[in-house]
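Supplementary Methods S3. Input chains for the assembly prediction are listed below.
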Amino acid sequence: MKDSARLALLKRLVRWLVLSELAVRRALGRIRERSHWARLGACRGCGRCCERPSIRVGAFLWLLPRSRRLFVWWQRRINGFELVSADAKTRTLEFRCTHFDSERRVCDSYATRPAMCRDYPRLLFDQAWPELFAECGFRARPRNAEALEAGIEATGLSDEQKAELKRKLRLE
Ligand code: SF4
Ligand code: SF4
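Predicted structure tokens for the full assembly:
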């Protein structure tokens, strides 16, 4: 169901706050050289990331039932995300998005989609080993890829072994 004008305005405000916080955090991360991955490629619009949007929440939110309920309510009421499952091991909440048209594979409120949708898959690149969907047009490449490649070339491995190592290290 499409967002109303009032909901769209609220979502814009929240999105601005979330994206500003992310931009500051990333700028600090760059200063500290924390991200080891470069993001290559572009979105192909396959819609795979809209099938089951998931959010990893902090321990505070996870452990307090009231705050968790409020968070889930917010996702339902504001973002149109309906809770499907919760994984205690990773503190991840999985949703079904009511804005996703699974047949046409498009978002019915693309202009007002939440910050996490606009940002996807950048957050994954802050992880030690980003796992992207096979269909995704983005891919992760180590920032020190050239040094790794030179190191592999200097080994006495066979061409097949070098190619396999490069594939495993995402140097292709
Ligand atoms: S709000 Fe739109 S972009 Fe975000 S998950 Fe739903 S369908 Fe995808
Ligand atoms: S999975 Fe990747 S390519 Fe597909 S819609 Fe999402 S960001 Fe775009």
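The first strand starts at residue 37 and ends at 41. The chain has a mean pLDDT of 91.
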